[in-house]
């Protein structure tokens, strides 16, 4: 039987990852192809899809980030609206980066807890920020150094810390849904386990 010219090649991405990309709603065929190309033949262990919409004075901009881990690497894919294009013509940009898990330096979770006096164990709040660092972007925070004497006026130079925050995603259960928050926590735990030498989760179904 001759194949139809309209037939689309089937995706090799796990069904749950493909479904998450489709739910994000930002050119899912394009995003899936970019992620698939970056993954190659590797098996997906865990994933996180985060869609964000921002509002400028005269434009609405959409952005989707897909994070996926394999047994050996972290894949980061972004797709968003391109600024420079002809009026009335939509243009998107899509990029991907592949990072060895051995290069991932840290996984940070910042939880926002409303009414902490009534906190229930296991809930972890309704909002979190997931920050990953692998050395691509480093930030140097400098502050004036002090000697501890509040009356000292001498110049002690500066002291600082170097922080790596290559990507940071804010996930809110109220804005993104309870499943999005649960998925973000699962992804962070799986990635932390992978870079910490612990046993990772099985492939995504």
List keywords for this structure.
alpha+beta; four-stranded antiparallel beta sheet; three-stranded antiparallel beta sheet; 4 helices; 205 residues; single chain
Describe what this molecule looks like in 3D.
The chain has 205 residues and is an alpha+beta fold. 21% of the residues lie in helices and 35% in strands. The chain is built from four helices and nine strands. It has helices spanning 15-24, 28-39, 173-176, 178-195, and strands spanning 46-55, 60-69, 73-81, 92-100, 106-112, 127-133, 138-144, 158-164, 167-172.
Terminal residue distance: 31 Å
- Helical stretch tally: 4
Fraction of residues in H or I helices? 10-25%
Strands of the largest sheet, in order across it? 1-2-3-4
Question: Which stretches are low in confidence, meaning pLDDT under 50 for 5 or more residues running?
Answer: 1-7, 198-203
Radius of gyration using CA atoms only: 21 Å
Average residue pLDDT: 82
SSE order, one letter for each helix or strand? HHEEEEEEEEEHH
Largest sheet: 4 strands, antiparallel
Q: Helix- and strand-based class?
A: alpha+beta
Based on CA inertia axes, which overall geometry fits? globular
Q: Count the strands?
A: 9
Fraction of residues in β-strands? 35-45%
Put the structure in a nutshell.
The protein has 205 residues and is of the alpha+beta class. It has helices at 15-24, 28-39, 173-176, 178-195; strands at residues 46-55, 60-69, 73-81, 92-100, 106-112, 127-133, 138-144, 158-164, 167-172.
């Amino acid at each position: 039987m001759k194949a139809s010219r309209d037939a689309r090649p089937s995706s090799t991405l796990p069904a749950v990852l493909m479904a998450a990309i489709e739910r994000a709603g930002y050119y899912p065929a394009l995003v899936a192809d970019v992620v698939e190309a970056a993954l190659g033949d590797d098996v997906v262990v865990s994933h996180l899809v985060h869609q964000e919409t921002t509002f400028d004075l005269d434009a609405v901009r959409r952005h989707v980030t897909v994070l996926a881990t394999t047994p050996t690497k972290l894949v980061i894919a972004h797709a968003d609206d391109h600024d420079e294009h002809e009026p009335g013509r939509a243009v998107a940009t899509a990029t991907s980066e592949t990072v060895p898990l051995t290069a991932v330096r840290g996984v940070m979770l910042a939880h926002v807890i409303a009414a902490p006096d009534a906190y229930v164990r296991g809930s972890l709040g309704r909002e979190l920020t997931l920050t990953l660092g692998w050395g691509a972007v480093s930030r140097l925070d400098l502050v004036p150094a002090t000697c501890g004497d509040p009356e000292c006026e001498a110049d002690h130079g500066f002291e600082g810390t170097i922080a790596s925050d290559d990507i940071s995603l804010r996930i809110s259960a109220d804005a993104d849904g309870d499943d999005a928050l649960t998925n973000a926590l699962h992804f962070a735990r799986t990635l932390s386990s992978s870079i910490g030498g612990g046993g990772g989760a099985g492939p995504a179904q």
